[in-house]
């Protein structure tokens, strides 16, 4: 077969079942189309280069080439995991991704040298020197407090836990730490990822990252620990704001959607969080045939006669136990931890890992996220469109637009300003040294 015929065959509409999650060779075929026509290579390069695109005399031309990428690739036997991939520019990255069709792309740190050449620098040092501040939140970590789903499964009844996490953490990152360039991404199945991309965040030390992770760390204890949230005194201002602005109202909804007080085994778990056995016994007795149990619990614990030191924070502890963000803090603490790239295709669901607008996160519906099969179906329906308009004619267009306008463009402007200021400062210092 001639090359011309091969190319024509690749552009023929593929017969697909949009309701089917592709696996094996079919997934590879879908990914070949997705990476060939949809993946936003230029935008990804602009993001991860942070203005170091070779166009400004003050930029670091080696910066992007020192970034680690990792590919997970399907093989006939098992998955192949390729770490320490690196690319000089956007074109080289695009060529490699199209050739390998990875089922997952992970993004790592920026190292002292090109990760692909790390063995040559083993003696002089190969270390991560820059990395976005990242957060990883999985809904499966809430399995002890959700009753509609478990494991990697999610639905519209339990997804609000991720909305709560976005609201609480995003507000704190902006108001308490002063960060501006924050990207929230749907993981494709069971959670969300957060990338804090300010230059100050990218240059944090491991100790500083650990301090930030600890700042957010409230939910503690192992799987067998009954009580995982304990407050001994007044809430920290950050926690008080989270409770007042988000958690309290969201827990009221959670009581309804998860029917927390309609089943004995569920409200018994809540009673176990109350440290006073006499109060527990009194509540259990009065709840027989009582349908307003949560209101009754609040009234009893917050009344003057029951507002002892041991019960003062009990309502807050219950609310935090069920709704406060549960972070994988090791992801945040480590500089060399890998995190899945935005706009990947989740191999288990076929959904695209799209950005989430934190200002409208309550509107995000994980069940309506475009799938790779859906995009190909939309592509087939618009077979006559030009090569530059593949994304614009599909349901992925809104997500790419959100990424560009709300995150990428403000970030690049800041990066360019920082490069310009640093360059001008360097020039002025050189002039001052010569004048001296």
TrEMBL record:
Q: Where is this region: Disordered?
A: 1-20
GO BP, one annotated term: DNA replication, synthesis of primer
Gene Ontology cellular-component annotations = alpha DNA polymerase:primase complex
Against NCBIfam families, the record matches this protein to: primase_sml
Molecular function as annotated in GO: DNA-directed RNA polymerase activity; metal ion binding
This protein's source sits in the domain of life called Eukaryota
Any Pfam family from its record, for instance, is DNA_primase_S
Q: List UniProt keywords, sorted A-Z.
A: DNA replication, DNA-directed RNA polymerase, Metal-binding, Nucleotidyltransferase, Primosome, Transcription, Transferase, Zinc
Q: What cofactor is needed?
A: Mn(2+); Mg(2+)
Q: Where is the composition biased (Basic and acidic residues)?
A: 1-13
Q: What's this protein's name?
A: DNA primase
- InterPro entries with a match to the protein in the record: DNA_primase_S (IPR002755), DNA_primase_ssu_euk/arc (IPR014052)
The EC designation for this entry is 2.7.7.-
Source organism: Rhynchospora pubera
| Recorded family membership | Belongs to the eukaryotic-type primase small subunit family.
């Amino acid at each position: 077969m001639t090359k011309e015929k091969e190319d024509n065959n690749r552009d023929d509409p593929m017969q697909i079942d949009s309701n089917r999650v592709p696996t094996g060779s079919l997934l590879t075929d879908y990914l070949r189309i997705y990476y060939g026509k949809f993946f936003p290579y230029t935008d990804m390069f602009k993001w991860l280069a942070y203005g170091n695109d070779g166009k400004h005399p003050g930029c670091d031309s080696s910066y992007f080439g020192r970034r680690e990428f990792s590919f997970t690739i399907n093989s006939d036997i098992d998955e192949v995991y390729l770490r320490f991939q690196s690319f000089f520019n956007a074109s080289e990255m695009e060529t490699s991704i199209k050739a390998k069709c990875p089922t997952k792309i992970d993004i790592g740190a920026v190292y002292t040298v090109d990760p692909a050449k790390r063995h040559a620098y083993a003696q002089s040092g190969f270390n991560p020197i820059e990395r976005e501040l990242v957060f990883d939140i999985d809904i499966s970590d809430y399995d002890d407090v959700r009753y509609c789903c478990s494991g990697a499964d999610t639905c519209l009844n339990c997804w609000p836990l991720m909305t709560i996490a976005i609201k609480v953490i995003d507000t704190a990152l902006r108001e308490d730490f002063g960060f501006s360039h924050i990207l929230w991404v749907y993981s494709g199945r069971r959670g969300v990822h957060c990338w804090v991309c300010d230059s100050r965040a990218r240059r944090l030390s491991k100790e500083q990252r650990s301090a930030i992770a600890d700042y957010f760390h409230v939910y503690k204890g192992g799987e067998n620990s009954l009580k995982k949230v304990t407050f001994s005194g007044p809430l920290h201002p950050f926690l008080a704001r989270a409770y007042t602005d988000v958690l309290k109202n969201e827990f009221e909804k959670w009581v309804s959607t998860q029917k927390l007080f309609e089943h004995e085994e569920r409200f018994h778990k809540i009673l176990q969080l109350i440290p006073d056995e006499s109060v527990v016994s009194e509540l259990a007795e009065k709840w027989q045939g009582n349908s307003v149990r949560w209101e009754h619990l609040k009234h009893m614990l917050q009344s003057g006669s029951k507002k002892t030191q041991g019960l003062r924070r009990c309502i807050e502890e219950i609310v935090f136990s069920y709704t406060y963000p549960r972070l994988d803090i090791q992801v945040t603490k480590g500089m060399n931890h890998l995190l899945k790239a935005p706009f990947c295709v989740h191999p288990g669901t076929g959904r695209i890992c799209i950005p989430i607008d934190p200002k409208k996160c309550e509107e995000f519906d994980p069940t309506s996220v475009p799938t790779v099969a859906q995009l190909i179906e939309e592509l087939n329906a618009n077979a006559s469109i030009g090569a530059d308009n593949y994304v614009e004619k599909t349901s992925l267009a809104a997500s790419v637009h959100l990424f560009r306008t709300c995150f990428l463009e403000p970030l690049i402007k800041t990066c360019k300003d920082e490069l310009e200021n640093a360059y001008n400062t360097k020039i002025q210092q050189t002039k001052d040294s010569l004048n001296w």
